[in-house]
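Here is one chain, start to finish.
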Amino acid sequence: MKAEDYEAWYETAKGRRIALAEYQALRQHLDPRPADSILDVGCGTGQFTRRFAERNRVVIGLDSDVAWLRFAASRQTHKEAYVAGDAICLPFADKSVDLSISVAALCFVAQQRQAVLEMIRVTRRRVVLGLLNRRSPLFLAKGRDGGTGAYRGAHWHTANEAVRLFNELPVVNIRTQTVVAFTGNNTFVHALERLLPVSWPWGAFLVVSGDIQAEK
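Its structure:
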């Protein structure tokens, strides 16, 4: 898929609604202070990198696809920076950023555990992962048998599997949440989603976060 085609979906009414819901959940878990530096691992077209850069001065998007990085840089809005690199070997020093996120990118990384280790290595305070929820209606529609469209080849996580990514690592206060219970875009769907509890486990987008444990 071309970066232009991927980004075009975010410009539809449905895409804008879903992206906003995902961003709000990610931001709530990340809880960034204005001066915090943020690393977006697997930033793709820079959709979420740009959103975080609206309020944070130092935001870096990293991706291994140079063509997509060029596209992201062409959409730069708040002086966010873009760097080429691999999620399993991040080109940053230990504890060099305050916060790190990864939005659906690890779903396409074979060595997920290594990518999480790298995020923890370079991060001082908190790591947040946005993943695809295997326990969601979207998985039944788009994820089975290898997936379709933009979801082809993606790994879909359960909440327990997402938490296990942090097992025996220096991460505490692990939390999970799902959002985007329904992928439709009409008044009925909007009203129904507002009635759902925060603990709703079947949303399409699964967020897992944890604080980096202070060294003794």
